[in-house]
Fold this protein.
Amino acid sequence: MTEEQVSRSKRWTIHGERVVDGSRRSRLSIADVELPDGVRFEQYVIRAPRSAMVAVLDGQERLLLMRRHRFVFDRWVWELPGGYIDEGEDPAKCAVREVEEETGWRPGAVEPLLSFQPWVATADAENLLFLARNAEHTGAAVDVNETERVAWVPLDEARHLVSQGEIVGAGTVIAVLELVARRARGEL
């Protein structure tokens, strides 16, 4: 067998998927899945629009973070600015728009940092992370519904916030760890 044939023989088969509930931000469905050995079962699947986040670093290696309350698990946390990409919207433009709306800072040019899926066994919710190396303060009011406080946090302190459980969102954790690793390799 070729490598492609082997891969195809080990692929899970989806016989159908029915929507249980949905909104413009997510859809919950139940998939009828068959494993390579023939076992069939149903599994919940969450599908969400792609989202974009930006790690904005200044010349002093400080990261632009927002402190906000997350009601789902009732905690105050630090996060990167970001949000859902609208239908037909360019991801980089979404990323810039979200930073400005949520923090009052307009990032300069953004470049792709990486992308990830935060919950691969149950959800399809691609997150695109961008990097900006500077930002200009616009003077615009911060969206009170999004942000309690905006701060420029030194990268080492952000790494400490991850260890202390004050940064818990997958996108922000991944961005902080990636930036620390790139700095260690001399790539920042």
User: Anything to note?
Assistant: Residues 3-47 form one domain.
